[in-house]
Amino acid sequence: MHKKIWVSLVLASILVVGITWATVKQQPTNVITVGSVTSDADIWRHLAQSKQAKQLHLKIQVKEFTDGQALNVATAQGQVDVNAFQSYGYFDAFNKASKVGKLANLGTTYLEPMGIYSSHYHALKDLPDGATIAIAKDLADEARGLKLLADNGLITLAPGFGALDGLEKVTSNPKHFKFQEIDDTTGGRVVKDPKIAAVLMSNSISQASGLNVLKDALAYEHVNSHTKANINILATAEKQSHNPTYRKLLTLYHDKTSQAYIAAKYHGTKTEVNKPISYFKGEH
Predict the structure, then answer these.
(1) Which of 157, 160, 159, 138 minimizes the C-alpha distance to 149?
(2) pLDDT for 50-92, tens place per residue?
(3) How far apart are the first and last CA of the chain?
(4) CA distance linking residue 233 with residue 231, whole number of Å
(5) Is the full-model pTM beyond 0.85?
(6) What is the three-class DSSP state of 64?
(7) SS3 state of residue 183
(8) Sorted alphabetically, which PANTHER family does this protein's record hold (predicted)?
């Protein structure tokens, strides 16, 4: 008899625990899940613990990804609330191709300048006729690198050159440069190759190689009408585009204390961009 009572009590306890856990899982949470990659994930982990986040009543959980496409899909499907990793051009290309839902642009964060580096020449004008220039074979970075070369008068691109266009859209190459497509992660090694006159490198790759784009590049991107597509943004699922709590993440990011931390940690190479969304429509 006592054994039956004991078993009944155990079963009842299990049932109560199960109901309790189910209730906890169903309770709404005020935590914002921010999906990010590499250095952006590090920034948001820091901001999540900051005094400024507490003052804004923001509870942030950072979920790190290794693949931008997967992160955008997770955001569009609501598995991630907001993501912080991508340029406006990448965001726009995703939305045009997406079959799983659209994303909304919450606002701008920074421009991480791409640079032209060389271990053998000190100025763009010194690059010899027929020189080999290494450029990332990744479509987004290849397009970005070609636009940087064009902005510096080294090549001409076809009208309407897009964020995922490539070498086939080079219409004029007066110095007869040869282009060698490389894995962008090898840029720090390739720049030392005596056969390579210059290398186009993203800021994350150049930093990993001990280079500072503001000091070591022959030329680099600036915030202007030509680099709008390269400005990084915060993105969320389209239905959350007007979520006021998510928009407070921009207030946190652009806080003076937050910016001081980012500038010190990344040596000024993440150029703050605080523009309205209309900036991408040419209104500002």
Answers:
(1) 157
(2) 999 999 999 999 999 999 999 999 999 999 999 999 999 889 9
(3) 81
(4) 7
(5) no
(6) strand
(7) coil
(8) D-METHIONINE-BINDING LIPOPROTEIN METQ (PTHR30429), LIPOPROTEIN (PTHR30429:SF3)
